[in-house]
């Protein structure tokens, strides 16, 4: 039996094909643009996601030579919070406002006023946040009433792909948790929140647990993708929950540190628990009946990509001639810089920030620049700043009494030996990598295997399909340097925060 996992990411859609033992037989990634019409805005076209998904499915089938009749199920995952609005003819009404968009501060105030700050956290486990979907819905209603009047269905990014594959309007509890419309503890839409915000529940899809079957590949999708009509499609999960499944974060004590476009520190919860200050998110997990808590930093890999695109012209030019990834060259340059980047500190707030400051107006900062600093210190400062933001998340988990015995690293950042070492040194713990580095797409495939009946439980599937490969041990000689630098890092934002929104 074979399974497909599709991850609708921010920079591209990744598709993988795996067997029931977790061996990945083929992968494919197709990229697409992100649009920023104004500072702090971020949009994408859902049709681009669908085009990339179709190409990905066809590609992995062709590469693997697997008979489509042997593909038993498809699992879906993707970037959370994105707003997809369809009209009665199932056409996309406007570009999707995606997770890192920061335009909805006024709508967050509106949500807080209508629901009540404490009540909102009681129900949705989080304060009103600009990244979440509810505030995006209200923004369209407040600013584009002509578009809001056309709305027939509201979907999340991966659920748009589900609709195109199956014709079904559905979502899962983990991804729906990030809409701020779900009763997190009871794992269902909140009638109270929807009523207070004036959002019709009929606009939303049916909510499923992540391994449940939500539909089957229809004739139109079969013809365009090459999958067999009737192939199962399971609910799947938001990218962080699915990525956690792909990393085996399905029991207490084991956490993941993921550096993708955003950065996430993720822990499994057997029982519902929230941070009263709302600095980290409590969501339903992709494991039925369980929850998870995660701290999110907005600009993790995004920060290094920003630096690459705007300042690493030499590395990009070298790529053209020697066919070497610019990120590898940047890694090698950063390794030449001293730990702590000789006092150069970077705050990775390029898209505002969630954990721990919850400030959509925050901006990126390079602090402590001197004539001594070169490109290598700037690159290292970006990498260290991202890890410091992840350490902020980890510190809050400790405050909440969440046990941390083991850290597993994933995402694009896990490909960097230096970034893994910096995490080990700053966290002062071993960090582990696994047999699969495909993260959310692999987790989606695992959920598909459970949904198809290959495994009875998600935990059972993870025990078989996931293996630890190697660890990166911390360098105790660097603990004091990073403790001192981290203390300085944490002192900068409070001193300048009032300047960001002037």
TrEMBL record:
GO terms for biological process, alphabetical: D-xylose metabolic process; xylulose catabolic process
Source domain of life: Bacteria
Keyword tags: ATP-binding, Carbohydrate metabolism, Kinase, Nucleotide-binding, Transferase, Xylose metabolism
Swiss-Prot/TrEMBL catalytic activity: D-xylulose + ATP = D-xylulose 5-phosphate + ADP + H(+)
Catalytic residues identified in the record: 239 (proton acceptor)
EC number of this enzyme: 2.7.1.17
Chain sites annotated for binding substrate: 80-81
Gene3D superfamilies: 3.30.420.40
Classification via Pfam families: FGGY_C, FGGY_N
Keyword Transferase among record annotations: yes
Site annotation Important for activity: residues: 7
GO molecular function annotations of the record: ATP binding; D-xylulokinase activity
Keyword Transmembrane on entry: no
Residue intervals of the Carbohydrate kinase FGGY N-terminal domain: 2-246
Domain (Carbohydrate kinase FGGY C-terminal): residue spans on this chain: 257-451
Family: Belongs to the FGGY kinase family.
Function: Catalyzes the phosphorylation of D-xylulose to D-xylulose 5-phosphate.
Xref: HAMAP family: XylB (MF_02220)
Protein name: Xylulose kinase
Organism: Caldicellulosiruptor owensensis (strain ATCC 700167 / DSM 13100 / OL)
